[in-house]
Amino acid sequence: MVEARNQVDVLPTSSGRTEELTVDVGSMVNVGQVLARIGHGTLDAQLDQALATVRSSKAQLGSIMAAIEPRIRSAQAKLDSAVTAQDQLINPSSSELEAAGSTVATAKGNLERAIIKLEQLNNPSASDLQTAESALATAQSNLNSANTRLDQLLDPSVSDLQTAQGKVATAQSKLDSRITNLDQLSNPTAAALAAAQEGVSDAQIKLNSSQVTVNDAISDAIASASFTASLEPAWESLLSARVNEQANVAILLNPSLSSTLSQDELSDVQASISKYQDSISTQLSTILASSVIQEDVNSPMLAENSAQTALETAQEELKELQSPESNDMAVARNDVAAAQATLDTEVANLEDLQNADENTVTLARNEVAKASAAVESAQSRLAELRTPTTSTIALAESTVEANQAALAAAEANLQSLLNPTPAKLAAAESMVASAQQTLTTASPPQSDLVVEAAQATLDKAQAQVELVRYKLEELEVRAPFDGIITRKLLDVGGWAGPFPASPIFRLASTDVDITIQVRETEVNSLQLGQAVQFTSPALPGQTLELQVDRIAPMGEGNSFSFRVMLAPTGPAPDLRPGMSGDVTVITQHDNTVLVPKEALLRQAGRPAVYTVQDNRAELRIVGIGLTGEDTIEVRGDILPGENVVISGHNFLREGDLVVIQ
């Protein structure tokens, strides 16, 4: 009897009414393919309810956390602050130490200057007096200049106006010179521009000619089938992309064509060029990854690359004329700006002299007042050095004392950072302990239990959602293995389920076995892999070659026989489950090769023997036939008279040295 190697009745894991059948009798199916769908029943409602429970649980947990978390965050912030303060006290940061050291250095500098000033008051040196006198002279000079400026504004002389006009003329001349230089950089001669533009045009013509030559070379090679067959589609795609890219570039380069296009149409042309360039790059990569470009195509491609480089060089030269180096332009523009600023200043000065407004006069008066105050300060300083008063000395002594106190405070602060006192350390530790206690009371143990209970409720609700979704998935009945539908056991609307078993389809694998019953007195004459022949009334005129595939390890007591499964040795598409037939086991062969039974072994599940060639082991895969008392028939690449290994062959490998005894 021909039987499917695997056959099952397919049914759902949950009971329900069949709503859809996706296959029918004779359908070939793959493992995991949906065969039928069972009605959801109340599961959709259960899913909605479970999702609602999840949302409710999340809201409840969120409400609990919202009540607890602010107190915890506040207490945690206080603890973090206390711990940070303690850490800074024990291990001050480098920035704190640097700031404290800087304060000490500043205080020392202030003290040193205060001491020097006091010493200068008590015992002024010739150098101190000379410095003070020089400062007074400078202040007086500044005052004289301020007064002169004010007098010029209030009552300018002819000489003042002529001098200011001369400065304006000089500044204007310098500005004109700077503008001329900038114009020369910005506007090259027409002849130079024309020559550069002609160079670009010539280079473009040469590139166009080179592109045509390359296209013709590729086209000729395709026509003559000189490219590798597997790469011919890539060359055809490359040629098409090149032609389209060049056509779109030609549109942009031709003003009579590009001027008629809208901005959107120009953008489309640019996008097409980019697309074809990407295609050219992709196809070239494919070609170069598999072969070298042949000479009759490669040579014009190299010439095309040279023409492209020449065009880019010509375009760069034209660009340099049209847009000179940014550094040179920047310098020229800065020179113009500086000259313009000088001219503006001189013009403003001249206008002030010719017609000074009230604001300008007020500013000049303020400059005179500032310069006068500077003179008075310098005079006072010189007078202090020459004949210091008692109050001045007392003030200097007080300044020294104040700076000494500031230095002492800065040094004490630095020392407290380097070596904090036990009292400060104890206080910081107490602050940390207090903050820790506050955090502990902010989240009492019972609140943890409430949170855990709410979280458990949420977890349970989410688990219920997953369970319902799993049940919904199980209502899609899927094929457990590849095979063919042999029977439809239910129609749409029928009740399917596991209890009681109500299958929908019967599924059989496409692999078949031919099963025979062999009497116990004959079963030992069969060997795995032994060839047999099969004929069937369903296959008139055909004799199929089979082999023994499996032999039942236990006999069937009532019939005193063993179940033996036979398998086709090759494709047997005409064999179908349910066919009957006759099996012929050949019990005698003439002119066969026999080997000792102990020579036989299995390699990857197939029978084999080791022969000996030049004293080395050589593995031969064989077929087996009839079995005698001590020998077995083998078929394959083995000849009568060849030596075979009968001892130790399970430890041999191909090519191992063999000693014949």
User: Share of helix among residues?
Assistant: 55-70%
> Based on CA inertia axes, which overall geometry fits?
elongated
The biggest sheet, with number of strands, parallel, antiparallel or mixed sense and barrel status, is: 6 strands, antiparallel
Residue-averaged pLDDT, rounded? 86
Q: Pairing-aware structural class of the strands and helices?
A: alpha+beta
Whole-number radius of gyration? 53 Å
Helix segment count?
A: 14
What is the topology, as strand order, of the major beta sheet?
Answer: 1-10-13-12-11-14
Walk me through the topology.
Layout: E1 2-4, E2 7-10, E3 16-21, E4 28-29, E5 34-38, H1 43-90, H2 94-122, H3 126-154, H4 158-186, H5 190-223, H6 232-253, H7 255-258, H8 263-290, H9 295-322, H10 326-355, H11 358-386, H12 390-418, H13 422-442, H14 445-474, E6 476-478, E7 483-488, E8 495-496, E9 505-508, E10 512-519, E11 531-535, E12 544-551, E13 561-568, E14 582-584, E15 593-596, E16 601-603, E17 606-613, E18 616-627, E19 631-636
Antiparallel strand pairs: 1-10, 2-9, 3-5, 3-8, 4-7, 5-6, 7-9, 10-13, 11-12, 11-14, 12-13, 15-19, 16-17, 17-18, 18-19
Helix pairs in contact: 1-13, 1-14, 2-12, 3-11, 4-10, 5-6, 5-9, 6-8
3D architecture notes:
Among the domains are: 2-39 and 475-496, Beta Barrel (OB fold (Dihydrolipoamide Acetyltransferase, E2P)); 48-92 and 426-462; 190-327, no CATH class; 511-584, Elongation Factor Tu (Ef-tu), domain 3 (Beta Barrel); 593-651, conserved putative lor/sdh protein from methanococcus maripaludis s2 fold (Beta Barrel), CATH 2.40.420. It starts with a strand and ends in a 25-residue tail after the last strand. It has 661 residues and is α+β, with helices and mostly antiparallel strands. Helix 6 (232-253) packs antiparallel against helix 8 (263-290). The protein contains 14 helices and 19 strands. Helices cover 59% and strands 15% of the residues. The protein is elongated and about 145 Å long. The mean pLDDT is 86. The strands form 4 sheets. The chain has a 6-stranded antiparallel sheet with strand order 1-10-13-12-11-14, with no helix packed on it.
